[in-house]
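Why do we care about 3D structure at all? Because function follows from shape, and shape follows, mostly, from sequence. That is the central idea of this module. The next example makes it concrete: a single protein chain, its amino acid sequence, and then its structure expressed as tokens.
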Amino acid sequence: MSRITLRVLDGSDRGTVYEGLPVPVTIGREEGNTVQLNDERISRFHIKIQDDQDKVVLTDLGSTNGTRVNGEETQLRILRYGDLIHVGRSVLLYGTREQIAGRLEELRANGAPIAEELDPDELARRAEDRPENESELLWTEEEDLRSTLHIPSPPDVPVGLSPGQAAQFSEILEYLHLRARTLIQAVTAPKDGEPVEMLYENWQDLLDIQSLLAEYLRKIGEPDAE
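And the structure:
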């Protein structure tokens, strides 16, 4: 069973540390949650964090105002040390200082480009110094919070799929690959430094692919949604 640490960086409960919580963990404003936050914009039972195949997974429980991880809306997300979880007006940092430092070292060892490092102590200090009349801290607009920890990297292919599931997953990827390849081949490579231009219908096709990916993400994150 995994144990996780969450630190509240912003919101009414800022400065609170939930250390070594055994998963599964639920977060919301109602009694009965593992972590009960004093935040009117959080749903009664907002998110759940649980183990699945040696990974820690966050699931939005159909909340009214949604959940963001590192500024991105999400229904289902594998958590990594240093992730910022936004629920309502509250911002939670996932992982201990040691775990986050270990992830930074791993990224360095793998040759990841190091931008501004995320310093948990500095984040906590900034949250504490925020004016009381300021409704929320816009973390995604802080340049020095766009650290290596939050640069998306290619995820691993899921393991343990049945042959039918693997075939279906492969079919989806092949479909998207073929559509993306068609768009790439339709673009004339410019000279160095010149912008790439594409036909309006190709731009619309690209937007359609983005829309399709958004639909896939929603269906995976909310399988029972109409």
